[in-house]
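dude i think i finally got it to work??
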Amino acid sequence: MQSLRYVSYHDIDKKKWDECIMLSANKLIYVNSFYLDAMAGEWDALVLNDYDVVMPVLRRKKWGIKYLYQPAFMQQGGLYHKAPLAQDVPFNIYKLLQQHYRFAEIALNYANPRVSFPGVSFSSRNNYILDLHRSYESITAGYAKNVTQELRRLQKFNLNYVVSTDTDEAIEIYRDLYGNEMTYSKRDYLLFQLLCKKLIQEESVLVRHIKNDAGEPLAVALLLKDNRRLYNIISCILPTGKKYSANYFLYDSLIKEFSGKKLLLDFEGSDKVGIKYFYEKFTQANQPYFFMKFNRLPWPLKLFKR
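look at this
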């Protein structure tokens, strides 16, 4: 008989949790316990049997109402499992979530199904990936014609691909450029900075710049790394970099550096038309995931969250 239970943060067996994540075919870095601790603080869990299936419960409380949210710098959550999911497991898990929470806006992951469930809506989000386990020449043969043309044009500018370990600088550039467009708080950025300091010691984060001959930064990317993926967490092109189209050179150089490795380059999106169009020039492989919402708040609070 299967046993599905809600487990509070202090009762989670993190060793068993991380073992389940490690053995999951859909493993992603965001749901390792250290990542959840860093970005969500205290979080709860839904656990099936002896950690055969797990799901992080990312919770907050406001005005006395508990709700579920998606932490900053964490693209996907949802269910992770050692073996294929039984058909009824997602339904039972979503049902249990609704029993504990009145409101949710959370991301599942690419392997989680959409389930027909009263009051729950699912919207699909793009996530482009590129298999790096090929030669550079094989990968570039799949580039859109426009990418090849841009890279040929950029040869005359003597751009430099620079390896860095300065995660703070990359985060600050990102915040300065896009902070007004994002909903991240000062605390979110601070927590991510602290997480990166931990990961850089484990060689699990990398920063790559494109600079011109004068040393002027044109574009920067900060990526996290595990044994399966490079996660394109932060990507920035500065105003001067736009004149060069330096982001083409950045991603081509990154692909060249890691080509032949048993990794996926996870572009982390996007549903924004311009970004989506740019990533599609490097790969047509889309690995979408669902964003799940439900709203059972009492009136009139329900009106403020639609």
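Residues 174 and 215 are 18 Å apart (CA to CA).
im so relieved honestly
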